[in-house]
TrEMBL record:
GO molecular function terms attached to this record: ATP binding; ligase activity, forming carbon-nitrogen bonds; zinc ion binding
Family annotation (PANTHER family): 7-CYANO-7-DEAZAGUANINE SYNTHASE
Protein name, as recorded: 7-cyano-7-deazaguanine synthase
Broad enzyme group: ligase
Functional note: Catalyzes the ATP-dependent conversion of 7-carboxy-7-deazaguanine (CDG) to 7-cyano-7-deazaguanine (preQ(0)).
Family: Belongs to the QueC family.
EC number assigned by the record: 6.3.4.20
Keywords associated with the record: ATP-binding, Ligase, Metal-binding, Nucleotide-binding, Queuosine biosynthesis, Zinc
Reaction(s) this enzyme catalyzes, per UniProt: 7-carboxy-7-carbaguanine + NH4(+) + 2 ATP = 7-cyano-7-carbaguanine + 2 AMP + 2 diphosphate + 2 H(+)
Positions annotated to bind ATP: V14, S15, G16, G17, M18, D19, S20, A21, V22, T23, I24
Species this chain originates from: Luteibacter anthropi
Gene field: queC
Cofactor note: Binds 1 zinc ion per subunit.
Cofactor(s) needed for function: Zn(2+)
Length: 227
């Protein structure tokens, strides 16, 4: 527990979607000063990046930074290549999985955390109602935290690095309820894999389906803007 009057800094990965918005709100409730980090990695649309900045400001981030990484140059995903976004995830790991995305994002967050003097990184990954991505599972987060603590000055000589994934074992309905409790305005978030330039959702992709199911399970009105 922080016993000084100086708030603890946390770097939080922000995608512009509902999960990362709730993660910011949870970190703020725990007393962290939020440094929000988004990554422009060559995704299909810019509306989620616009939502990232909007949501970060709305939820009281001390600062929001966007770092550019060109994952479109290697492709391999429906989000970074000329591959159609499927109407549902199907079996196995779907084509919307972006190779190495979360590894790269956490690495950038780790670097910024060291510069800021922060020992805490938050990400909104979930392994209950999710698309089956391997880098959203507990084993990945545990392994990355172990890596962070042998790969950094903060890990070797300092207080160590902790990777927080507070939504990991929550269903989408639980995430919606938690967001409502914390006052998150979900209408400002963008989750859709195939959103238009105005951030309106397609209503058919895996992300839209999971989001809609979350509102239904929580018994809350779906404030998503659809095409």
């Amino acid at each position: 527990m922080n016993t000084s009057n100086t708030p603890r800094k946390a770097v939080i990965l922000v995608s512009g979607g509902m999960d990362s918005a709730v993660t910011i709100a949870m970190a703020r409730e725990q007393g962290f000063e939020v440094y929000a980090l988004s990554v422009a990695y060559g995704q299909r649309h810019s509306s989620e990046l616009e939502a990232s900045e909007r949501v970060s400001n709305m939820l009281g981030a001390k600062r929001h930074k966007t770092v550019h990484v060109d994952l479109r140059s290697i492709g391999g995903s429906a989000l970074t290549d000329d591959i159609d976004v499927p109407a549902d995830g199907g079996e196995g790991i779907p084509v919307t999985y972006v190779p190495a995305r979360n590894t790269i994002m956490l690495s950038i967050a780790l670097g910024w955390a060291e510069v800021l003097g922060s020992t805490d990184i938050f990400c909104g990954v979930n392994a209950v109602d999710y698309s089956g991505y391997p880098d959203c599972r507990p084993a990945f987060i545990d392994a990355y935290e172990a890596l962070a603590n042998v790969a950094t000055k903060a890990g070797v000589e300092g207080a160590g690095i902790r990777i927080h994934a507070p939504l990991m074992h929550m269903g989408k309905g639980d995430i919606v309820r938690e967001g409502v409790r914390l006052g998150v305005d979900f209408s400002q978030t963008v989750s859709c894999y195939n959103a238009d330039d105005e951030g309106r959702a397609c209503g058919h992709c895996d992300a839209c389906r999971l989001r809609a199911e979350g509102f239904a399970k929580a018994g809350e009105k779906d404030t998503t803007r659809y095409v």
